[in-house]
Specification:
The chain is an all-alpha fold. The protein has a domain of about 50 residues. It has four helices and no strands. The longest helix is centred in the first third of the chain and has 15 residues.
Amino acid sequence: MIEEFDVKKETEKAKQLTKAIRKPRFYRSSLDEYADILIALHRAGNTTAKIHRFLVKEKKVNVAWSTVYRWVKKNG
């Protein structure tokens, strides 16, 4: 005997499976620790390259220029 296919039941199963697979990703940036300094430097007219050099030389933060650019664009 063949069981009837229940579309709503299968759709709900698929949604639950997707929910279980999908994990929220809320990683803090290593730059968040220096937020006040970075915002102040940006508002003072420093370029992203200058801010990046400051982080690498003075604060010893190993971070890419593009990361600094995105962080400043989002938070500055």
